[in-house]
Amino acid sequence: MAARSCRVTITDTEEVAHTVKVTATTLYEAVALGLAAIRGNEWVMGIAEGLNVVRVRVTDIPVEHEVKLGEFLKWLERKGGSPRETSDRNRIRDILQMSKEKS
Predict the structure, then answer these.
(1) pLDDT > 60? residue 101
(2) Are 45 and 13 in contact (CB under 8 A)?
(3) Which of the listed residues 48, 54, 72, 97 has the most CB atoms within 10 Å of its CB?
C-alpha cells in the first residue's frame, strides 16, 4: 500500500481541536501517528477516549513545479502552433492583459 499524506484532527478534553500532518499507509496507522503526535504536545489538555472522534483527511501529495520566467515569456510570444496551444497562449495573454496574437 502506498503512503499517503493525512491531516489527523482530534478534540481534547477542553474542546480544543488539534490537527497534525502525518504520512501513513493505512487509516489506523494515521490515527496512531496522529494520536502520538498530539498526545506529545504540551498544549493538549488530555484526550478523552470512548466517544471522541479522530478525523483523518487524506490529502494529495503536493506537486510543485518551477518555470523559468524567460522561457514562459518566450512561449507566450511564440507565433503559430496547434490550435490548442494558440488558444492557451491567447487565454494567458488575456489573464496578463496583453494583446492577443493575430490569427
Answers:
(1) no
(2) yes
(3) 54
17 touches 11 (CB < 8 A): yes
Q: Model confidence over 39-71: pLDDT tens digits?
A: 887 887 788 777 788 999 998 766 667 778 888
Strands 54-59 and 4-11: antiparallel
Give the distance between the most distant pair of CA atoms in the chain.
Answer: 68
| Cα 83 from Cα 102, distance rounded (Å) | 13
Beta bridge partners of 55: 9
> 54-59 and 17-24: which strand pairing?
unpaired
Phi, psi torsion values for 66, nearest 5 degrees: -125, 135
Give the per-residue pLDDT at 12: 85
Q: Which of 37, 80, 83, 74 is nearest to 56 (CA)?
A: 37
Residue 8 has φ and ψ, to the nearest 5°, of: -110, 125
